[in-house]
Amino acid sequence: MSATWPPRYDPAWRPAPDAEHWAPGLECAEPKKRDEVVLAKLRAQVQYAWERSPFYRRRWEAAGVSPARLRTLADLAKFPVVQKADLRAAQAAAPPFGDYLCIEPREVARIHGTSGTTGHPTVFGVGRDDWERIGEAHARVLWGAGLRPDDRVLIASFFSLYLGSWGALKGCERLGATVFPFGAGLPGQTLMAVQWAREMSATAFYGTPSYALHFAETARREGIEPRDFGFRTLFFSGEPGAGVAATKRLIEATFGGACIDMGSMAEMTPWMTNGECRRRTGMHLWQDIVYTQVCDPETFAPVPYGGEGTPVYTHLERTSQPMIRLVSGDLARWTDEPCPCGRTYPRLPGGLYGRIDDMFIVRGENIYPSAIEDTLRAIEGFGGEFRVIISRREAMDELLVRAEYAASHAADAPRAALAARMRERLRARLGVTPRIELVAAGELPRTEFKAKRVIDDRDLYKKGVANV
Ligand SMILES: [Zn+2]
Fold it and tell me: Which of 174, 338, 394, 413 has its CA 20 to 30 A from that of 229?
């Protein structure tokens, strides 16, 4: 059990290149044994927030809890959860960082934020020591994903206030790999990235799953077969795709490397503490860095292993803006079944496959966009991109799936057969029969970041705007 909190790590230490684990004493520990370490860190983290954050003290006093009430890990469930809206309100009342900043503002080493595309952006202030610990945590998880110091990593995502790219960069640097922070988002940049990836002989790729597929299409247009890049590892965050079985298979078939799913939330950085190992059995929850419980979305009590709920995250070594019981709003099922890698962390076998608020209901069926993606990607002849449009033309909801067909299915007969197959497989999976509209491959816009594939027209209809 560690006596000092927050922990300090030797920035020069690394495992031997052939070691499978960075910290086997924690990663492969008997879970009850590791829980003692987790509890000690948790108690120190909670005590720290109590002393330094009016935000937590106010909320915990109102709920009748205090650090003294935290005697076991189960006691954590007595502490109130934090929602993103609570953070936004705290920042509006105490700008810019909110009264959950537990260090002096001048000790903030990095300012990041949400993109702010929906609602008011949230500001992240990361202390210098925290940033080093984030690098340590990410290096450890990346090691588990199979990255080694001789890797050369192409980081193909935005370098902006977005924390994802910087977190990947920091982890790769700490691990000792060669990092190639290419970025994304500028006109013509994907084509340049394709050329540079080849010339620099990159061995690993970081970005979003949709961007990786866009990258592959761009390469093929240039006459480059994506397998020829030689990416051994492709790791992802920002979208659920890398945890969607069919998308994972597609990425691996396209590039010939391992597709690794990662990512919790920017607020929870080190966000790689949801992170798959090389065996790719679903993201492990690296419980001694961030303590995660999959909880009932209404009561926020942890659900038993095997159950479905929303991950609720708690930092264990964060001094700047610690998050204690932050609700993700994502959906996941968790399990404690063993993984062949030897790590004893719980896992999310299907990744984060939806969001509580992404789910839409059509004719009484709960539908997740990831289920549609998974189904389409398993169908031969699917052209790679799709949109979902939900409308209410008459009294009934209508589900329209606009999907691309591959060039191999362009003739009338194969196209009709493809549409029928999509309709049937989606009906079997969703419980609702969709209308299928096929368009040629490449016709639907690709995004370089998070794909937005669902359009719900029913609200417009209700307001009388969609006057059709
Ligand atoms: Zn594993």
Answer: 174
What whole-number distance in Å separates Cα of residue 360 and Cα of residue 183?
Answer: 33
> How many Cβ atoms from other residues are within 10 Å of residue 39's Cβ?
19
The verdict on residue 367 lying in a domain is yes
Measured in whole angstroms, the distance separating CA 327 from the mean position of its chain's CA atoms is: 14
What separation in Å is there between the alpha carbon of 343 and the centre of ligand 1?
5
How far does the centroid of ligand 1 lie from the alpha carbon of residue 105, in Å?
39
Report how far ligand 1's centroid is from the alpha carbon of 353 (Å). 19
The string of pLDDT tens digits covering residues 85-132 is: 899 999 999 999 999 999 999 999 999 998 655 567 899 999 999 999
| 285 Cα–ligand 1 center, Å | 10
Residue-wise burial string across 413-429, b where 16 or more C-beta atoms lie within 10 A, e elsewhere: eeeeebbeebeeebeee
Q: How many Å apart are CA 352 and CA 375, to the nearest integer?
A: 17
Tell me whether residue 384 is in a domain. Answer: yes
Our count of domains for the chain comes to 1
pTM of the model: 0.83
Q: How far, in Å, from the CA of 420 to the mean position of ligand 1?
A: 39
